[in-house]
């Protein structure tokens, strides 16, 4: 039996790995799995004859022909192992964490069985990260005691070659975008679900976050945890909830709202119909200062919420109405003790660990022409609204009240539910930053306790990113190379202070076959002979230009100065998805400023 050795090595009552089974579908798929067992390595697997022929590659595959990677032949695996991503428990063979690093299809260059028997298997890969022609060559080792299982994995010279290829620049799952540490920290990883839908019942403060903060300040964390455990019971019926809250709201208007009016800065005013959200200034490193509060930076859609006599309206940061897109949020007014209020917050889709996922938000919303929703999004992915500020409450403008007081009142008027939360604030910035880093989050926000709400970008709020992200305008695309279809990379740009679109790099990774095809349809409709860029983009391949109407979310490692033009560019940009909530004009250069200088300016009252 082809899988006999695989079966002998495993106890399937103790490991989540799939049991042995021959697949008769005769497919040609491949997978590369990063495996942190006793030693970190990559498992390279090709679907052949109903099983996955497998090799362990210590340094991982490379797109540079100069890198001849040692590949040790190991036992065949079942084809169902293709999408296995998770944790193999201790005391099991191969115990450790497994990530699907790359996945796709392969094509033999000749008779596969004959080449394999000869020890010279040539093939082409079409994956999310690996493309082009490769060879697996059996070698005779001079070392004593060798088992004859040593091969070399070699990249052939073609259009997919990347000189100096660095595998660490692509250290994320091809299925879930998670890192190996993310998967290792997910005790519910099944170790089977490659792209779980978000949870609709996440605790108000995720366990990983509470634990991290507790290490820095056990007393404060214990106090906060005790408060959070006293969450209100769920209401069995929406009407009962609304009735109870309405009674509470009436009492608060009589007893509490006069006290709100005594808050320093509170002003009696009519409720505005529009609010320009306050934006944070990017700084380069975390800091600790008692005059500041710290929050998680949510990776979703910013939304200002208008509550007016029970009717809700959600408005994006660029003024688009989001109300109809999220029907499960329409009843959150029943959990807010107010007749009229304006809240600032973020609509997010959470993964199973309570982390906001922009990828899940993209799946939920769907992408339409010109940034409009098509109605084809996945409504089964739930969303929540995390409120982090209160700007108006029953006749009073609170934008000139201190942030700390606004947050206190916000917590008093909200009864948390499955879809409505108050975003937690912390006194310690450095432990929160380290906790966010450990969990692979985008970053944190620092807000000065005494800051007013300013309807512009301000130094009173600072954002500290862990993973560099930037919204960019798509101004063109390059010809595909190798076996890639449609296009090779999207050509990205940002507007400078003179309104010129400056090329900042090209993103060719991060695409699935589906997202590649969907974006290709949009690019074709926007194609133009006129370049939207100021200056010519650096590219070894022909660039086709498009009208600058699409905004892409890009993840990258750092800003560099490279290329013939000497312009600043993104290093290792990865396409994360299209942004429908932001306009191209918002895509401007946003370099991190020195933290100390910005904190000093904010605390001195310079909020220009």
From TrEMBL:
Lineage: superkingdom: Bacteria
SUPFAM superfamilies the record matches: DNA ligase/mRNA capping enzyme, catalytic domain (SSF56091), Nucleic acid-binding proteins (SSF50249)
GO MF annotation: an example: DNA ligase (ATP) activity
GO biological process, one term: DNA recombination
EC main group: ligase
Enzyme Commission code: 6.5.1.1
Spans annotated as Disordered: 1-28, 225-256
Parts of the chain that traverse the membrane: none
Ranges of residues in domain ATP-dependent DNA ligase family profile: 376-500
Record field: catalytic activity: ATP + (deoxyribonucleotide)n-3'-hydroxyl + 5'-phospho-(deoxyribonucleotide)m = (deoxyribonucleotide)n+m + AMP + diphosphate
Family that this chain belongs to: Belongs to the ATP-dependent DNA ligase family.
Stated name of the protein: DNA ligase (ATP)
The species this protein was found in: Koribacter versatilis (strain Ellin345)
Lineage: Bacteria, Pseudomonadati, Acidobacteriota, Terriglobia, Terriglobales
């Amino acid at each position: 039996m082809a899988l006999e050795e695989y079966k002998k090595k495993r106890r399937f009552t103790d490991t989540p790995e799939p049991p042995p089974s021959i697949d008769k579908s005769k497919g040609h798929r491949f997978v590369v799995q990063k495996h942190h067992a006793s030693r970190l390595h990559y498992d390279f697997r090709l679907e052949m004859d109903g099983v996955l022929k497998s090799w362990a590659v210590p340094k991982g595959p490379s797109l540079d022909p100069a890198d001849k990677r040692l590949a040790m032949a190991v036992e065949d695996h079942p084809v169902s192992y293709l999408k296995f991503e998770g944790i193999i428990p201790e005391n099991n063979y191969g115990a450790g964490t497994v990530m699907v690093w790359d996945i796709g299809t392969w094509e033999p260059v000749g008779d596969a069985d004959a080449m394999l028997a000869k020890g010279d298997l040539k093939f082409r890969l079409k994956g999310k990260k690996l493309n082009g022609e490769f060879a697996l060559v059996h070698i005779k080792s001079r070392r004593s005691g060798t088992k004859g299982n040593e091969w070399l994995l070699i990249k052939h010279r073609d259009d997919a070659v990347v000189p100096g290829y660095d595998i660490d620049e692509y250290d994320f799952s091809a299925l879930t975008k998670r890192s190996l540490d993310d998967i290792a920290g997910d005790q519910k990883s099944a170790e089977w679900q490659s792209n779980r839908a978000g949870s609709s019942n996440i605790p108000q403060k995720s366990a990983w976050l509470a634990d991290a903060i507790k290490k820095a300040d056990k007393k404060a964390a214990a106090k906060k945890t005790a408060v959070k455990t006293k969450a209100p019971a769920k209401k069995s019926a929406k009407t009962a909830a609304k009735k109870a809250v309405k009674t509470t709201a009436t009492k608060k208007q009589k007893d509490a709202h006069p006290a709100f009016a005594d808050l320093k800065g509170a002003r009696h005013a009519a409720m505005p119909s529009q609010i320009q959200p306050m934006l944070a200034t990017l700084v380069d490193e975390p800091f600790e200062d008692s005059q500041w509060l710290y929050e998680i930076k949510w990776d979703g859609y910013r939304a200002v919420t208008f509550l007016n006599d029970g009717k809700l309206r959600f408005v994006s940061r660029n003024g688009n109405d989001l109300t109809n897109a999220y029907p499960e949020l329409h009843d959150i007014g029943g959990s807010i003790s107010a007749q009229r209020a304006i809240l600032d917050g973020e609509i997010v889709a959470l993964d199973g660990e309570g982390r906001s996922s922009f990828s899940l938000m993209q799946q939920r919303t769907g992408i339409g022409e010109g940034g409009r929703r098509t109605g084809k999004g996945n409504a089964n992915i739930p969303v929540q609204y995390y409120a982090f500020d209160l700007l108006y409450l029953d006749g009073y403008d609170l934008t000139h009240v201190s942030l700390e007081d606004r947050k206190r009142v916000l917590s008093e008027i909200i009864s948390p539910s499955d879809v409505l939360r108050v975003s937690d604030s912390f006194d310690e910035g450095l432990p929160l930053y380290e906790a966010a880093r450990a969990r692979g989050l985008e970053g944190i926000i620092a807000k000065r306790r005494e800051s007013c709400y300013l309807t512009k970008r301000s130094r009173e709020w600072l954002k500290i990113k862990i993973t560099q992200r930037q919204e960019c305008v798509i101004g063109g695309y390059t010809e595909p190379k190798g076996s890639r279809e449609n296009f090779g990379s999207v050509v990205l740009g940002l507007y400078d202070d003179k309104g010129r679109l400056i090329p900042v790099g090209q993103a060719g990774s991060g695409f699935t076959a589906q997202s590649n095809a969907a974006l290709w349809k949009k690019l074709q409709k926007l194609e133009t002979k006129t370049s939207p860029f100021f200056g010519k983009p650096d590219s070894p391949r022909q660039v086709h230009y498009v009208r600058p109407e699409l905004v892409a979310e890009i993840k990258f490692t750092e800003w560099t100065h490279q290329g013939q033009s000497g312009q600043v560019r993104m290093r290792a940009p990865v396409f994360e998805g299209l942004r429908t909530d932001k306009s191209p004009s918002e895509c401007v250069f946003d370099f991190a400023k020195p933290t100390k200088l910005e904190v000093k300016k904010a605390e001195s009252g310079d909020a220009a």
